[in-house]
């Protein structure tokens, strides 16, 4: 079961409770599920009971108690535990969860985590005449579009080099109407550092601007170009290249990917990072924060790099179901990293 499927399952539980007369609320359109916070347990947690408590006229814990049996009977859910003021903690069947998450990534490819269609929102972003704001605004627009919004980006000013070197784009340039605020305002790049930043080239310069949080001053030095582990952009692109290489080498050996049960340790850590990708995309879009996606890609890459050498058979070993399951996980890694880098406007090379 993927996080998206689990979110739908939670909404179905609310619907069943309403139909049974156990709750009197309007069924929400979305239920947020995420890894449990401090004091939580299981694989995912949701605060839907806290969200529904006031309209239901009941304490959150009571709402959670009503929903619990409707979740326990669902295939793929092995336990439901209530914690705190009414958080619902859900434990999934490990094998089914692995197959579901990896299968969903392979089905959606680089669009894993995207909304299925438009949600009707129309968003206008406006940036000052400043390099970092324009790049952050452009990527924030891509993230919002990935979540179903229609977006228009404008800037008070735009330099030709921002397009020719960084590939930056906006829909309009000029002073915005009074009612449209400058709502993309990261800490700017000092004018003295702009030339140094542009000298890094498109991919490294974009990473330098997007990886730090909006309130942090970006570094513009050549550390973004070094081909070693100290450079997070290198780790992300290297993990992508290794994942693609695993698929090519498996084809040479005559076997293909098939999602299946995965082992403990590194494989489960990597699976959790992939499962969290849709939530990260949604949060990055809501907060206009590409840095959340950039840091998540580093998390995926760092979890993938110890795992990828285990994908292929060694020596005279024949490909097994375990190898096919690991290959499917590796292909999922490649899809998530490629899709995330594309949203940031950064190339994901198959060879590095």
From TrEMBL:
Coiled-coil segments on the chain, per record: none
| Keyword Nucleotide-binding in annotation | yes
Q: Which Gene3D superfamilies match?
A: Arginyl tRNA synthetase N-terminal domain, Isoleucyl-tRNA Synthetase, Domain 1
Query: Which reaction equations make up its catalytic activity?
Result: tRNA(Arg) + L-arginine + ATP = L-arginyl-tRNA(Arg) + AMP + diphosphate
Where does the Arginyl tRNA synthetase N-terminal domain start and stop, copy by copy? 4-92
Q: What is the E.C. number?
A: 6.1.1.19
What keywords appear on the UniProt entry? Answer: ATP-binding, Ligase, Nucleotide-binding
Q: Where in the numbering of this chain does the DALR anticodon binding domain appear?
A: 236-352
State what protein this is by name: arginine--tRNA ligase
> What gene makes this protein?
nrtL
């Amino acid at each position: 079961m993927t996080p998206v499927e689990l979110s739908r399952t939670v909404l179905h539980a609310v619907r069943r409770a309403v139909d049974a007369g156990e709750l009197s609320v309007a069924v929400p359109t979305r239920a947020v599920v995420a890894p449990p916070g401090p004091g939580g347990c299981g694989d995912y947690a949701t605060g839907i009971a806290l969200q529904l408590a006031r309209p239901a006229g009941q304490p959150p814990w009571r709402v959670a108690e009503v929903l619990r049996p409707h979740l326990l009977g669902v295939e793929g859910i092995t336990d439901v535990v209530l914690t705190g003021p009414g958080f619902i903690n859900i434990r999934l069947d490990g094998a089914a969860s692995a197959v579901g998450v990896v299968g969903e990534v392979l089905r959606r490819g680089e669009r894993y985590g995207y909304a299925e269609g438009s949600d009707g929102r129309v968003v206008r972003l406006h940036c000052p005449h400043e390099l970092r704001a324009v790049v952050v605004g452009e990527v924030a627009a891509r993230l919002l579009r990935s979540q179903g919004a229609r977006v228009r980006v404008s800037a008070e000013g735009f330099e030709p080099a921002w397009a020719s070197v960084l590939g930056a784009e906006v829909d309009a340039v000029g002073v915005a109407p009074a009612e449209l605020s400058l709502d993309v305002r990261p800490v700017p790049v000092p004018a003295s550092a702009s030339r140094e930043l542009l000298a890094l080239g498109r991919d490294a310069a974009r990473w330098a601007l997007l990886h730090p949080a909006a309130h942090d001053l970006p570094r513009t030095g050549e550390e973004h170009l070094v081909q070693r582990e100290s450079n997070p952009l290198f780790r992300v692109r290297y993990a992508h290249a290794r994942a693609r290489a695993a698929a090519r080498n498996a084809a040479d050996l005559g076997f293909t990917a098939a999602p299946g049960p995965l082992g403990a340790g590194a494989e489960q850590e990597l699976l959790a990072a992939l499962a969290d990708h849709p939530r990260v995309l949604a949060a990055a879009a809501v907060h206009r924060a590409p840095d959340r996606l950039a840091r998540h890609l580093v998390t995926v890459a760092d979890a993938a790099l110890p795992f990828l050498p285990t994908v292929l058979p060694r020596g005279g070993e024949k490909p097994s179901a375990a190898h096919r399951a690991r290959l499917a996980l590796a292909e999922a890694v490649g899809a998530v990293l490629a899709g995330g880098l594309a949203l940031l406007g950064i190339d994901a090379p198959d060879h590095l």
